[in-house]
Amino acid sequence: MVINEIFYSLQGEGFLAGIPSVFVRLAGCPLRCKWCDTKYAWDNKAGENYSIEEIFQAVQQYKSKFIVITGGEPMTNPDLSGLAQKLKASERHITIETAGIAFMPDLACDLMSISPKLSNSTPGKIELAETHEALRLDVAVLRKLIDNYKYQLKFVVDSQDDLAEIQQTIEKLGNVDSEKVMLMPQAATRDELLVKSPMVAEMCKRTGFAFCHRLQVLLWNNKRGM
Fold first, then answer.
1. Burial classification of residue 224, based on how many CB atoms lie within 10 Å of its CB (0-12 exposed, 13-18 middle, 19 or more buried)
2. H or E element that contains 198
3. What is the C-alpha to C-alpha distance for residues 150 and 80, in angstroms, rounded to an integer?
4. pLDDT given for residue 222 in this prediction
5. Of 97, 105, 192, 202, which residue has the fewest beta carbons closer than 10 angstroms?
6. What is the pLDDT of residue 131?
7. DSSP assignment, residue 209?
């Protein structure tokens, strides 16, 4: 597997925010979100080759029970199942971070952290936008993930206008537990996070959805490997 980076930090997002976790970032993602903060992991070759055993040994140096497999887009990696099974065998809690564009059955996954991509993610360049739009939202795949795994849904909010699209997406999915839905400010910097957070907080108060923090932005200003 091509691994972009392995590091120890705090989970920055979702219902497990603040928990010390080991992050295993896989290389490769077919999406091209314009606000993506891990563009350095887009390319399938953006990293070093590791065997599953080598990844396991690298993770073992950290005491945390919690492991986050992220990317890139881990659900498009054919070796994900073997990696998750190996890590889970050491009695770790496994979170898989995904955009929800692909499905794998029977993964050793304790939490499927799904971030469906809204139209606010579409890049401006036409050649990138066409591919991105074709892939970014697959309702059937999202439904299968929700039906088969313990999950959370994180929607990235860039403006007030995004709320209608979020609600439409949830309606299309059907039978979504509203207590598992989170709204997260789109922010590449600490200053941007502080500006947008009150807007998202008010949206959460109106809808009953949870506010999703971004501790990696607040604490380290989105510095890589933190």
1. middle
2. helix 190-207
3. 17
4. 84
5. 105
6. 92
7. P
For CA atoms 68, 214, 13, 120, the dihedral sign is negative
CA distance 66 to 18: 11
Parallel/antiparallel/unpaired status of strands 2-10 and 48-49: antiparallel
User: The whole model's pTM is what?
Assistant: 0.95
Query: Sheet holding 210-211: strands in order across?
Result: 48-49, 2-10, 20-26, 66-70, 93-98, 111-114, 151-157, 181-185, 210-211
Amino acid at 2: V
CA angle at residue 135 from 129 to 136, to 5 degrees? 80
Q: What confidence tens digit (pLDDT) does each residue in 109-155 have? A: 999 999 999 999 999 999 899 999 999 999 999 999 999 999 999 99
CA angle at 48 for the pair 107 and 24, rounded to the nearest 5°: 40
Pairing of strands 20-26, 2-10: antiparallel
Count of C-beta atoms within a 10 Å radius of residue 97: 24
Per-residue model confidence as pLDDT tens digits over 201-219: 999 999 999 999 999 999 9
Rounded percentage of the chain residues whose pLDDT exceeds 90: 96
User: Residue for token digits 């140096």?
Assistant: 61
